[in-house]
Write a structure and sequence with these properties.
Blueprint: E1 3-10, H1 15-29, H2 34-54, E2 60-67, E3 71-78, H3 109-116, E4 119-123, E5 128-138, H4 149-152, E6 156-158
Antiparallel strand pairs: 1-2, 2-3, 3-5, 4-5, 5-6
Length: 159
């Protein structure tokens, strides 16, 4: 089930859907169940949206994925700098992080990434990078009607 991909995209909002399509297809083809693939795709979408919005002078961003039977690792990075006054945490802990006000139009991306992935960390150099990791195990909650003969032997769930 090993798979690797890397794609560099312009910092344009439409490219988030490109990432969702490519990553979602890859995850399903390697055998992840739909619910697990959806969680990973949503977390990656949030990281891509942040790269588009906060990458300063960078003209593009990169999405890299490494998958094997136990781990899905994604790196979303750009050459821009973090917004002024922002300190990137090396690793987000599982401690409580306050949600933005209900009236806020943004600010939920990192919260979603933390809830959907097992590990979320940041690096500021040489590229500003969000690292997302999800550990995988054989899926035991597949929908019997929706899986095909080939998918039955290869569905995996995120732990």
């Amino acid at each position: 089930m090993d798979a690797v991909f890397s794609i560099s995209l312009p910092r344009q909002a439409y490219t988030v859907s490109v990432v969702r399509d490519v990553l979602g297809t890859l995850l399903r083809r390697v055998g992840l169940c739909q619910d697990c693939a959806d969680d990973i795709v949503l977390a990656a979408s949030e990281a891509c949206a942040n790269a588009i919005e906060h990458a300063g002078s960078a003209t593009d961003y990169r999405v890299e994925a490494d998958l094997d039977s136990r781990l899905c690792e994604l790196r979303i990075s750009h050459n821009g700098e973090a917004p002024a006054g922002t300190v990137l945490p090396r690793r987000l802990s599982q401690d409580h992080v306050p949600l933005p006000r209900l009236s806020a139009e943004s600010g939920r991306g990192i919260f979603l990434m933390r809830r959907l992935m097992d590990e979320v960390s940041f690096r500021g150099a040489p590229r500003t990078t969000v690292l997302l990791r999800k550990y995988l195990s054989p899926c035991d909650h597949r929908d019997e009607e929706s899986r095909g003969a080939l998918a039955a032997a290869h569905d995996y769930a995120a732990l």
